[in-house]
Design goal:
DUF2905; DUF2905 family protein; 2 helices; 72 residues; transmembrane helix; membrane; transmembrane; alpha+beta
Length: 72
Amino acid sequence: MSRLLILIGVALILLGLLWGPLTRLGLGLGRLPGDIVIERENLRLYIPITSAILVSVALSAALALIRLVLGR
C-alpha cells in the first residue's frame, strides 16, 4: 500500500510539472467551463476545478483498467 501511495504521489508531481507544457499544446485543460480564472494587474490565479475533475476521472479509469488487466 505504501508503494502505491508513493507512486501516486510521484505521478501527481510529474503531472504538476507537465501541466504548463500540456496546456500550451492546446489540450484545453485549465480553460474548461467551470475553471476559475482571476486576472488582475499583478495577479493571475487559475483554479482548474473542472480540469481537475476530468483528470481525476481519467486517472481513475486508467487505474481501474490496470487492475482489471492485472487481475487484482
